[in-house]
Amino acid sequence: MCAGYLSQMLPSSFGVFSAGVKGKKEIKPEAVKVMAEDKVDISSATVNHVSEFDPNNFEVVVRCCGCDLEVGGNAGWNERPTYRDWNVDGSVTRAGSSLEDFQSLRDEIKKKCQSLADELLLSTFSVKSC
Fold it and tell me: What is the C-alpha to C-alpha distance for residues 24 and 33, in angstroms, rounded to an integer?
């Protein structure tokens, strides 16, 4: 969801990738559905395992799950110039969650993404005077 929103909110010059600590490759159908309700298509998105990426190749890192301890040997992620650990409720994505649970998660992530996108765009395109 986060990558879907940030891909829409930021110019294409910002590369947006999705990674997880459990290496799941499929997006939950409920997530696809609630994002489509907000006109964001994540139906073809995949989630790579975080170990497939080098933190040194990223300036901005967002962790949605509060998973700092789970990443283990992939030190360096929280040392990126812009680092956010939003610790959203990932339990919503477990079996038995309602569509309303996914909608609530989507809305929380959207607000956080909009705030981050505004911050990044302001810092990227602000005019500095001497």
Answer: 18
Q: Tokens representing 41?
A: 């298509």
CA count, 13 A, side-chain hemisphere, 70: 14
103: Cβ–Cβ under 8 A, 6 or more apart, which residues?
Answer: 34, 37
Q: Is 109 exposed, middle or buried (0-12, 13-18, 19+ CB in 10 A)?
A: buried
- pLDDT tens digits, one per residue of 77-86: 788 888 888 8
Cα–Cα distance for residue pair 19/95, rounded to 1 Å: 20
How far apart (Å, rounded) are the C-alpha atoms in residues 85 and 129? 32
State pTM to two decimals: 0.83
DSSP for residue 73: T
Q: Which of 10-14, 43-47, 84-88, 90-94 has the lowest mean pLDDT?
A: 90-94
Spatial contact of 86 and 64, defined as CB atoms under 8 Å apart: yes
